[in-house]
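subagent[fold] <- orchestrator: predict structure for attached chain, return tokens only, no commentary.
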Amino acid sequence: MSKTEFIIVTAIILFVAFTMGWFAHWLIHRFTKVSGSDMGEIDRMAQALHEAEETRDQAITYLQQRESELSNQIHQTEAELRAAMDGLRNARHEADELRAYIEQTNQG
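subagent[fold] -> orchestrator:
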């Protein structure tokens, strides 16, 4: 192979490589290009997502506060129930003692 043939073959190989690179770049650019209207839609979607996340965070905070309030109410109600049951138990015991006393006085 002469020097001229080597230069021509090298030039053809470089041109083919350049053409393939340019075509690959064009394909990638073609498939990944975002138009102005698409960008506006992406911005709207991002804003909607941000608002949805804020709403979710607010809902979680509200539910945690509500759960805390309800838990406190349950504990308070249970304490009141225990106190009422103790009072009822004492009243029944006192009523039994009074019945026993009345029966003793009626028999005696």
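orchestrator: received. Logging for downstream: Residues 36-107 form the longest helix (72 residues). The mean pLDDT is 92.
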